[in-house]
Amino acid sequence: MPRSLRRVRPSLAALALVLSAVLSVALVPGPFGAARAQGPAPYLMSTEEAVLLQQAQDYLNSVRSLRGRFQQASSTGNQASGTVYMRRPGRMRIEYDPPAEVLVVANGSYVIYEDGELQQVSYIGLGDTPLGILLRDEVKLSDPAITVTGMRRQAGLMEVDIVETDAPGQGTLTLVFAESPLELRSWRVRDAQNVEVTVNLLRPRFNIDLDRDLFSYRERAGFRRSD
């Protein structure tokens, strides 16, 4: 993988690609399990926005599986593409196109990040990344563990900013929906260093059968686990 791509490789936090429709994956570089900070200030939404947020939650919960192409771009100018598979609860697979030698698998317990160039594998607890928010069996945007910190509407799109209430330093996940009809279009993840990764879904297919083996990971010979 080119050095420039490796610096911004979808670090597990970001990938909060799935979507929860998802989910919303991709990833942002940086340390995981960041130090806990003072609780984030919740967004004070209008009655209309509260209704729209409930509709977005219902939509996310209606999506149990997904397969689609994606394009990923970071605020540092790097780009990548690939294929994402998601099955809730807890399962996701992100395959990056060459020249990136990157595979990400969420197996229900861990997010596993395989770097083919470095021949290295990292295991991160699913609950320690923003990805865990959207891969839950049931997404509850009113859950005390989640704080909605912002909402914006313009040009037929609605954006919702979400953080983990007890660990906002892990990053902000922004879901971008088309409003009519309601549909997830993209998501962004911004880390503590203000690096932002945007993932756009291309021709996604929802609620389809997916092979369970997609979400199993077997370490490759010669690969080592990172600390």
Explain what this protein looks like in three dimensions:
The chain has a single domain (3-29, 40-204), classed as Lipoprotein localisation LolA/LolB/LppX (outer membrane lipoprotein receptor (LolB), chain A, Clam), CATH 2.50.20. It has helices at residues 3-7, 47-62, 131-134; strands at residues 65-74, 79-87, 91-96, 102-107, 110-115, 120-125, 146-154, 157-164, 172-179, 182-190, 196-206, 224-225. Strand 1 (65-74) and strand 2 form a beta hairpin. It is mainly beta and 227 residues long. Residues 1-37 have low confidence and may be disordered. The radius of gyration is 16 Å and the shape is globular. 11% of the residues lie in helices and 40% in strands. It has a twelve-stranded mixed beta sheet, with helices on one face.
Ordered list of secondary-structure elements with their pairings:
Elements: H1 3-7, H2 47-62, E1 65-74, E2 79-87, E3 91-96, E4 102-107, E5 110-115, E6 120-125, H3 131-134, E7 146-154, E8 157-164, E9 172-179, E10 182-190, E11 196-206, E12 224-225
Parallel strand pairs: 6-12
Antiparallel strand pairs: 1-2, 1-11, 2-3, 3-4, 4-5, 5-6, 7-8, 8-9, 9-10, 10-11
Task: Classify the beta-strand content into a percent band.
Answer: 35-45%
Label the structural class. Answer: mainly beta
Gyration radius (Cα, Å) is 16 Å
Spell out the CATH superfamily.
Lipoprotein localisation LolA/LolB/LppX
Give the terminus-to-terminus CA distance: 21 Å
CATH topology: outer membrane lipoprotein receptor (LolB), chain A
Low-confidence stretches: 1-37
Task: Give the H and E element order.
Answer: HHEEEEEEHEEEEEE
The biggest beta sheet reads: 12 strands, mixed
The amount of helix comes to 10-25%
Average pLDDT score: 79
Question: What is the count of structural domains?
Answer: 1
Tally of DSSP helical segments = 3
Lateral arrangement of strands in the main beta sheet: 7-8-9-10-11-1-2-3-4-5-6-12
Q: What's the β-strand tally? A: 12
CATH architectural arrangement: Clam
CATH class: Mainly Beta
| Shape estimate | globular
